Every structure is written in structure tokens, then in C-alpha cells.
Amino acid sequence: MGDKSFLAWPFFEEKHRALEVDVADFARSIVPGLVDHHDPDGTCRKLVKALGEHGLLRYSVTAPYGGLAEKFDVRSLCLIRETLSHADGLADFAFAMQGLGTGPVTLFGTEEQKRKWLPPIAEGKAISAFALSEPDAGSDVAALACAARPDGNAHVVIEGEKTWISNGGIADRYVVFARTGEAPGARGLSAFMVEADTPGLTIAERLETISPHPLARLRFENCRIPIENRIGKAGDGFKIAMATLDIFRSTVGAAALGFARRALDEALVHVATRRMMGGVLADLQMVQGQLADMALDVDASALMVYRAAWTKDQGAARITREAAMAKYAATEAAQRVIDTAVQLFGGLGVKSGSRPEQLYREIRALRIYEGASAVQKVIIARSLLPSKT
Ligand code: COS
After folding, report:
1. Which of 82, 322, 362, 370 is catalytic?
2. What was the pLDDT predicted at 79?
């Protein structure tokens, strides 16, 4: 990355600065040889393996189950995502899903569940996924309909659909949130680990998007799993999902930040060399104003992202508001920064395959997934208003 002065901010320790150097080296020397945007499935499989071999997936789980520390270091997760997304969107995606997909196990699993499911994730030998959204329940998690009913004392049967599932089709296992009916709404959901080869789980449809990633709609028909695959207590599924998202939402902001920094870096090179009106683009005050706005958006996003991550790392039980602010601010800001980069590049900015064009397609989904911007605003506003209960 170009400007790394933010690493001197008090949010970081020496270990974070060393980590950034290591990830940047991985991003420069390994990632380009693995990425083929026409083959997102193959690319993600290769990236997960390489991330595991390089030791970076040890940040995606906790010790002693293949991880480095006994709890997530959110600043490290953010730094890794920021640095990988600066290099390539699929590299960031492959890393991010390993942690999110097993986050419920790491945070709420039993000793036995962690021992069984986490080490292969850290080694890059298994791919994980987080199956929450449904065709009729995305932002409103409490409305989800996919159901898990008891089948004898030792099993449950899952029926329903999940959609927009990242790694859908290539994951080895899915954390699935389903209605178990202990109470209406948010209090009647539970989380389950479902192995990809369980009979009754099928890929109903692979989903194509403007920026290709492995993504699918899943169907559960008479999908029978052992009750010991339930993660946490029955009825706690909503809280498990939200607590997991609390951690990973700030990392979505970090990914957006990496895209924005890349757009700014590309723009700085372009304006210094593009001839215009007897000089170069960078001579024009109107362009300088655009660069200033981009730099401001980048730094403001970084402050929000690392404030949230640092707060969690200091031991805060919940960072719901900080994470929502970080995700909302950084993803919206990155959209603006990238749009400006496209504008500065002119025709080249919309040429298929150019970096600004790629970034323009990559950033859009980040304002939607893991809680759309409108949801983050609701969460922030609720944290300001007096509780109704
Ligand atoms: N950590 C722990 N517990 C949490 C929590 C969090 N971050 N957020 C909420 N809870 C708890 C609440 O304390 C409440 O507990 P009690 O029932 O004991 O009071 C319970 O969960 C229900 O919370 P709430 O009333 O806020 O639920 P809502 O249905 O109103 O939540 C929003 C609404 C919009 C905030 C929620 O559905 C959401 O975040 N949606 C976006 C989901 C998302 O990111 N989807 C994308 C899928 S992943 S790609």
C-alpha cells in the first residue's frame, strides 16, 4: 500500500505493524499468481490453501484450536482484510469467510466442537460459510423461516432455504440459523453446523453478481443432523448471529478501506502522469480538491474501523454501535472514493478490466452484506435512543 502512516497510530502495537508487513508481502508475492476472476471457485480454493499455509488463517480462529490467541484480535483481522482487499477482492473474501463462517463456533461452541471444526479452518484445509439470509429474511433476521424440528432425542431435521450464501457451493460446512420455536421472533432461533455432504442439503442455484464470488442459494429438504451440531443454547441463535456480526462487521469496513486506499493510490499515479492542458491532471485545483476529499474519506474510515477494533480488543463485551458506525461509514466512503477514481481516470475508469472498474464493481456489495447501510443506521439510532424495555 502507498501511505502506511496510519500504522503509527496509537491503535496499533508492534505485532500489528509486523503483521501488516507480512500480509503485504503475501499480497504482493503470492496473491497475483492465484487469482483468476473467470474462475472464482478455483481461485478461492487456492487462496484458502495458500492463506492457511502462510499462517494467516490462524487469526480466523482462537487458541488452542489452531489460532494464535485465546480471543480474536479484531485489529489483526481488520489489517489483514484491508491489506488483502487492496490487492484483490477475492483474496479478502477467501480470508474473511473462514472467520465469519466459524465465528459462532469460536465464540459459542463447546470444547469438542471447537476441537473438531476449527483446526482445519486455520490450516486452510476446510472452507466455511455463514448461512443466515433467506429469500424473505435478509435485514430482518428475526423473520427467518428456515426451521429445525426435533427428530427423536438425538437429531433435528432442517427444512427451508438460505440465499446469498458466500462460499455456497464450495464450502465444506455451513453454520445455519434456523427457527426452533422456543419463543416467537428473535428468541426462537438456533445455530447448527451442517456438513456440506449431508443428505437433504443441495445447492439450489449458483448466484452470479457484478463482481463474481462463490455465492449460492441453498435448499434444505429433510436434512437430518445430530443435535450435538447445535452451537450454543436452543433459542440463542439470534444473539449468536449478532455477536458474530459485531466482530466481523468492522472487518467489512476494513475491506472497504483497502479498496478505497487502492483507488486513491491508483488515482495518485494517474493524476501525476496524465497530460492535461499543458500540464498534468494533478496541477488542476479541481482535481486537488477531489484528491483531498478522497484522502479525508480514507482517513476518517480508518479511524472508525480501528476505533471499533481497538475497543473490542480492549475487552468491551459489545461494540454494536462502533461496529455499525465503522461498517456504515467505511463502505459508503469507499463507494465515493472509488467513484471519484473512476471519474479521474475518464474512459479508462470504465474500461472492462481496468483497476478502477474492478473496484467499482467490488465495492457495491459491501454496502449490502452483513447488514445493509440502512440496518447500520437503525442500530446506531437505537443505541442513542432510550431503551423501550
Ligand atoms: N450482541 C448480542 N445480543 C444482541 C445483539 C448483539 N450485537 N444485538 C441484539 N442482541 C439481542 C438483544 O439484546 C435482544 O435480546 P433480548 O431478547 O434478551 O432483549 C435480542 O438480541 C433481539 O434484539 P433486537 O430487539 O434488537 O432484534 P431486532 O429483530 O429488532 O433486530 C436488526 C433488528 C435490524 C438490528 C437485526 O435484525 C440485524 O442486525 N439485521 C441485519 C442482519 C444482517 O446483517 N444480515 C445480513 C446477513 S449476513 S451476510
Report:
1. 370
2. 98
